[in-house]
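We store sequence, tokenised fold; for instance:
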Amino acid sequence: MDVDMDDDNFDFCPPFITTEDYSFDNSKISTFPIPTTLLDKFSDPQVHVKDSDIALPEDGFSISVEDFDIEVLSNSLKQSEESLQLTLPTENMELNNAIHLIKAYREAIDEGQIELSEVIMKRISEKVSPVGGVMDQLLYYLFQPVDKQADYLRQESDKNFRAAFMTFYQIFPYGKFAHFAANRAILQAMPHDVELIHVIDFDMGEGIQWPSMIEAIGWQQRKEIRLRPLKWSEADSDCPPSPWRFAETRRWLCDHAQAFCVKLTVDTMELHDLVNEIKTTKRNGRRREWLVFNCMLRLPHMGRVKNVWVNSRFSSSFGSFLDGHLVHYQALLESIEWAFPNHLGEARTALECLFVAPLISSLAWIHKWEEMGCCDLQLGFGLEGCQVSKESLMEAMEMVSEGKSLYGVRIEGENNNSMALEWRGIPLVRFSCWRS
């Protein structure tokens, strides 16, 4: 499909685009780089993530606490709604069990007892440890004091951040699943005669998503890529600064592109400049250009979360909001524990402190969930879902060794435009693909 830059033909697409309107030659991706293998336990799972259409564990995702796999938790919480009553501490009653304290915490928030919830939160933090079982770790990361200035575990882990990052990315499929799915969709949707590809990346980070796509384009298509990562200001997001230096990432990507004869430019842009960028691109009708949006959110290897994207509109109460997050992050921690032998427990804790704790501890301000100006984003609003190809599904299943591991991959969405990476049936990462 021709994508001229005049107003009539300009094609506005999010990062993933799998469209049946474009004829696609499978040879284009026959040399698509396959991610390096994971640990032996993963049996060579290759995973990528994501896409310009929001994919990732959604904050709207909600599963009741009754689905928890930990026996002690399910025994404590598998009760009918009729039997649930507000559990508040009194002079004659002390809640010693952390699970009961969670119930008290969520119920206190639902009843508007903010001061009480803070007392309960402090009590829970005193009972749990990052070196205990999965539930201990989950509650430790969740209820760390929000005003804590220095965390010893985090500081020690930061000393080997780069090595830890590569280890985490290679061992676990979360990031690779998203990146592979996104890049695959972009290559499949790309018009044959496009000359310049504009990629708006909402959080480029270390840039590890792009080398494989650069290689695939360089081998067969010789197209120019203009990568525009967004520069987030304090007004845009409460996200902590990225540990990656943009200049180093840009130089690394440009050197890689040069090795594959791909002309690549990497320049940041601010969010408020996005509309002007789109208008400018549409006015430039001299070349065949194509616009892609790539939006990666809350992936574990990113080690940070942008509060601006947090959305709890699907939760009718704080309790259901918290339950969904507990179920999700319990599954995430279980999948991490499964990959590590017992004698590497300290290494596992270090990786969790760097890449998982920031996601979980971001819930420490959940008691303000009703007060937050949550973004009322409607996924795919005004866009058409693009079907995920069978090839993408089969390759993703092979990456995670479905049938040999506890991971699974499933196609979702009304138009089969979404693909989820699951752990024992619980979604960990969700990719979706849309076009204008």
In short: The chain has 14 helices and ten strands.
